[in-house]
Amino acid sequence: MILLSDLFAANEATWPAGHRHGVGGFTVREGGGGGRRVSCATCDGDWTEDHLDRAEAAMAGLGQPPQFMIRPGDERLDAGLAQRGYRVVDPTVIYAAPIPAFEPAPDPMTAFPHWPPLAITRTLWAGAGIGPARLAVMHRAPAPRAAVLGRSGDRPAGVAFVAVHDTTAMLHALVVPEPMRRAGVGGTLLRRAAVWAGENGALALAVAVTEANAPARALYSSLGMKAVGQYCYRVK
Description:
Helices cover 32% and strands 33% of the residues. By secondary structure, it is an alpha+beta fold. The model has no long low-confidence stretch (mean pLDDT 96). A hairpin with a 2-residue loop joins strand 1 (19-23) and strand 2 (26-30). The strands form two sheets. It has an eight-stranded mixed beta sheet with strand order 4-11-5-10-9-8-7-6, with helices on both faces.
């Protein structure tokens, strides 16, 4: 069974913030421009209104907009932030499946893992807005980690980042350029990432995707992945 706590731990470990700061009942992340996930605050347990004030001030001091991740069990925080005028953004679903669910393995010529990222891999990411700040997040992730480059014919066709924490692998930064879509490239990348993850000790592969990304959610479901958790952000 895939535990939700393991998925959140893997999500954090494989896409890590630059620094984490304990502020009262909260952890404030310093993301360095690497995106909302590495720049948000999360609740660690009991908190007070003073702790919330301090967390807001800490994020402002880092030059980051106040934003909090709302996970299952954070209902009190969710209500408190709503009263302060925070709105919900990016409702996100976590999909996961055991590694054997991704069989059969794709032809090794259609996708291959490597590290550090090749120039063409970085170019594909850059075309989707995944630039140096997010590449820095990938480099911070502890090994095992890999970029997976997909190919269709003789052309680069897509890319993703995958890393393993304990026995859970998380896939991030999946990009398939528009001309290469609807040709099975996304599925090939996930299946190759799953093979690599299994070789590196993972028992399951997971991915976080916004609720609004219907094509990606359809892809994950078609591969046998199940929606097993969710979270969102509150932004002032």
